[in-house]
Amino acid sequence: MQAAQPPPQWQRSRVLLLLAATETAAVPGISAAGATPASRLGTAAADAELLLRGPGPGRPHALPPLPAGVSPALISHVVLRELGLLERLVVADLGCAVAPAVPHLRLPGQEGDGPARCLSSGQAMALERVEALLARGKAWGQALPPGDPLVLAECVPGGTTTALAVLRGLGLAADGLVSGSLRRSAHALKAALVDQGLAAAALEGESTVPARVLAAVGDPMQPLAAGLLLAAAGRGVPVLLAGGSQMAAVLAVALALASPAQRARLAAATWLATTAWVAEEPESDLERLLALIAARWQVEPRLRVAGLRFHACRSAALQDFERGFVKEGVGAGGLAWIWQRLGRDPAALAEACDRACTHLFAEAGA
What we know:
Layout: E1 14-19, H1 37-40, H2 43-53, H3 73-82, E2 89-93, E3 105-106, H4 127-143, E4 150-155, H5 159-169, H6 187-201, H7 210-217, H8 221-234, E5 239-242, H9 245-257, H10 260-268, E6 270-274, H11 276-279, H12 286-297, E7 303-305, H13 316-322, H14 332-341, H15 346-365
Parallel strand pairs: 1-2, 1-4, 2-3, 4-5, 5-6, 6-7
Helix pairs in contact: 2-3, 3-14, 3-15, 4-7, 4-8, 5-6, 5-7, 5-9, 8-9, 8-10, 9-12
């Protein structure tokens, strides 16, 4: 009988934020991660700066205007600051149009490695780029020490649509299940773009080759995160996928890449944690999506939901989360779950976020 593994020591977590971009975000009505396509070009940079520097002055890139709410990077910053994990955060820019003005890695940096093309083209990225990102992710995963958990977070405007496309490309009936930053999910628009992209890609028998699916309709975050997950979990490193639908797509890609013998170990080392606003969204179904993944690859994904709620907050921008806006991003759900897993009260996190939000808007109005 295999000995029970000790629980992960989440207070020693390493946190990796992956910034990426796709021209899919420029499609009108596809995303609320910025009120306009132009503003979404700077979303990742602004979120990374808020995550590292917090709501005070000294952030060169202003947060893009949103239809409602505030960047979930505010939640993640508060958790990392209060838990003393900011020094264990690494930011990687995988080719965004605007680079963040905080210490970060820029990968890979050569010509042609900027934002992915719109997935409707069926040629989102060169296959060589996808394979290079997969290899880089595997190399990072193999270099991680096995004792400390890894938290994977992302900021990819338009990324829930590429998540749907990749899930569909891998053969999962994911239409209507994927969440998004809009209050009312743009399921019809997303499905139409995905239909167009998959038809243009004409994958046929290659739909079971994950790298070709990613090259056709994915974004740069997905191959690097999937390669990292595959290698890290294979070495017994606990991995927390901090997010919703986009991290479900990362899990699906990693499972598709894994051999049948590797899949059970991968699933056993992996958690997916998100916010209650994603888990309870009436117009998406993360549990059903994970059930499809479970049935396809014969594993049992572990979903955790943070107890953070903003009903009692004074800040209208935080109350907007309860009205269905924003919901998730920049690792907010996973980090909020770690907060309570370490014995902290979700209500105390809400109060700290309320103070930080007041500070953020006071600085913006100064």
